[in-house]
Structure formats: structure tokens, C-alpha cells
Amino acid sequence: MYTLYLSRLPRSRLTGESKRLGMFVAVGSAGYTSATLAALGMDGPRVIPPEFLSIDSDMRTGDLWKAFAIPTATFIWLLDFWFFALAVCACLRGSRHMEFSLDWLAFVFPSVELTTGTVQIADAIGSSAVKGVAVWQKKVLWPGKDVNLEGLDDQEVSYELRQEQQPS
Questions:
Q1: DSSP class per residue in 22-64
Q2: Which of 54 and 167 is assigned the larger pLDDT?
């Protein structure tokens, strides 16, 4: 998937503004891969027996696995963050002309996967600062950007939203 994605980006134009959120799909699999590698790296010393693969040395095999897994997870996370930044820039560039489409759902899950990878790597390296960057509160959904409002004109939508927002 990444080969096609990376070879197509420089040769082709970006998709339509409302479909650009589909670029976040590239963020998903790398996010889960980095989270999984970081989690496996942390469990390696506990799970892998010291004599695994008949390696006779002072270094345990689980520690060796951790030494390779955490940097690899970090590299994949950095690649994932690059895909995320690329998708965000593309979406911001066309944000004035975006209309709701089901591609908007592609924003949610890959972003969660990136956050999961960030939290796992923060646990692996013992950094509370990195974990703090991974979690913050923002509004993801906005009033008026709902699938059920497709046939209504703007005046009806704004009137309904004002009615809903008034205190009872």
C-alpha cells in the first residue's frame, strides 16, 4: 500500500477537497505497527527465556529484542507522523471547499492509532511528556456537519441548531 501511495503522491494531483480525509488511511497501519512493536519490546525481557535460540552471552535475548523493537517502533512512528502531517496539510489546504462525505470517518480511527502508538512508545521510553502530547481535548464533530442534514438548506439548519443550543 505504501509503495503505491508514495509513488502516486509526486506524480498525481491531490484528490478533491472532500475526499482528502481519505489520506488519513495511510496513518492507521503504521500506528498499530509502532504500538505493537513497542508493546512487544517492553514484554520481551519478561516473556522470552534467557536461553532462547541457544545464545550464550551475558545479554538476555529479551533485552536484545527490546533494544531492537523500541527504536524500530520509534522509526515507524516517525514515518506515521509524517503521513499524518501530510494528510493534515492537504486537508487544511482544501478546507474552505470541503463538504461532508463518509471519508470524514477516515480521520477518526487512524488518528486514534497514531495516539495509541505515541502512548506505547512513551511508556517504553518512560516519558510522561511524550504521553502528555499524545492526549488533549478537542472538538472533533461540529454542529451542522451531520449525515442527516443533507437535504436541508442552510437557513433551516441554522434555525434547528439555534433551537437545540438554547437552554431549557
A1: GGGHHHHHHHHHHHHHHHHHHHHHHHS-TTGGG--SSS-HHHH
A2: 54
